[in-house]
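Submission checklist for the structure archive. All mandatory fields must be present; incomplete records are returned to the submitter.

[x] Identifier: TRAP transporter small permease protein
[x] Organism: Rubrivivax gelatinosus
[x] Residue count: 185
[x] Sequence attached
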Amino acid sequence: MAFWIRRGMRVLDLACATLLALMVVLVFGNVVMRYGFDASITVSEELARWAFVWMTMLGAVVAVENRGHLGSNLLVERLGRGGRRACLLLSQTLMIAITALLLVGSWQQAAINWSVRAPVSGLSMAGFYGAGVVFGVLVLGLLLRQALRTVTGELGDEDLAPLQESEDVAQIQDLHLDRSAAWRH
């Protein structure tokens, strides 16, 4: 199962990179057309917006799998193994509930907008809201798997407080460590 999830994440990474490249081409092409030829490609703005929404949602799926979301483990790191497991399970349960709400809302919006056409491209607006549906289904599956692993005890101690510090915090800590080491000599 983990093999297929890693493969899926690589596919989503590739999809995000492709959507980003498409956005760059569409937006840059439109800028060149406006300033160079006093014309514009109207559909490029709409397609770039759609590509941005899809890239954001697919990238968020990858972030959930990699546990790359923002958070603070100031309290959690002070707890024992049982407390860490309880906090992780609580956070996973809340994320599952919120993702389920987003999935239901996106599904309803896609259904409502199935026959509504985008103003320029004429594409069904259900495709726009479909990004939320795809996000919801994929993230719900990932979160349910992670919660099951938490309940069954498959996670090691390092997985129970999975948050990573930002690069800025690490750099500041390195500076302070260097200063304290300098004062010791």
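[x] Structure attached
Curator remark: The chain is about 75% helix and 0% strand. The mean pLDDT is 86.
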